[in-house]
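Subject: for your reference before the review

Hello V.,

The reviewers asked for a structural picture of the protein, and I figured it would be easier to keep everything in one thread rather than splitting it across files. Below is the amino acid sequence we used in the manuscript, unchanged from the supplementary table.
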Amino acid sequence: MFKSANSKPKILVAPLNWGLGHASRCIPIIKSLIANQTEVIIACGDNQRLMLKAEFPSLRFIDLPGYDLKYGQNKRLTLFKIIFQIPKILIRIKRENHWLKRFLAKERVDVVISDNRYGLFSSEIYCVFITHQLRIKVPFGKKIENIIQRINYQYINKFSACWVPDFENEPSLAGDLSHPAKLTEKNIRYIGCLSRFKKLDAKIAADSLLIILSGPEPQRTILEKILLNQLQSHPGKVTMVRGVPDKKEKPANSNITVYNHLPTTELNKIICESEFVICRSGYSSIMDIVKLEKKSIVIPTPGQTEQEYLADYLFRKKIVFSAQQKDFLLNDALNNARKFCYKKYENIDDSLMEKAVEDLIISIRK
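And here is what came back from the structure prediction:
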């Protein structure tokens, strides 16, 4: 624990490299840590570093390879690929833990905050695990889900605490994922909706679309091609953010402005000015949509069961409009979305995360 009264507590923050969502939802946590006078170190992969470095240029970054999962060309292949990559995931988790032991042997850290990196636990210091998936959905039935949940809890219980980016009471954003029938033994704390954005009083341009792409390949590129082919005839302004900060910018088409990545302030403004946001149903994107009260069309990644569950669950709650990638037709989706009765989510409370961070800092200063 933190001992010196003359130096700042040192916090290691490590988001998973499964797309940019884990990194983006760590931004408000990092800002709160800085506001609480801590020294923050970020351990992440290349893409996450490019994104977070733009937000926090003065912070120290350490390279930490991720799980580097690959998806298939369709739903069935993606399911098979994820299953066959399980041994790879377990090896990477073990390597993460060895990495943390070597890191802690070299320098003092008071707290580790791990966003879905299962190997970053230690009995020597306080370790926080962030996840909205206390129950992991799989397409193989409840019995298999129960087995996976037990394994999931075995890892989570190695940490000092578990922070869940959702609300403890209904309405829940993640449904059964964050509110399973049985909770883990660890200290569970619901920290609300994690979004780096703020709602702006912006004028919304008619027929304006914002496309936000994300996630592992090849599915990110597959959706990009589907949308680009159909956006050519769209009458309104279109902005596409490709979610690949390490790539070269693509030239803009007549009515489409394309960015590989945008800083938070610029992206925040464009989201608020757009009539519809079209994106994956990843949980970080869902939290952004809800926070900004945007009309959205979410397209779950085929074979990624979590996204398929979230899209269906929130569609039934009238929070998002959902469409499938297979045979996706932009005009039909927009026509149906305009008729859709979107409901405003009434449970946003930014103070939950800030209070969790404040309590953490108070506890390690004792």
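For the response letter, the relevant points are probably these. Residues 86-106 form the longest helix (21 residues). The chain has two domains: 10-192+349-365, 209-339.

Happy to draft the paragraph if you're swamped.

O.
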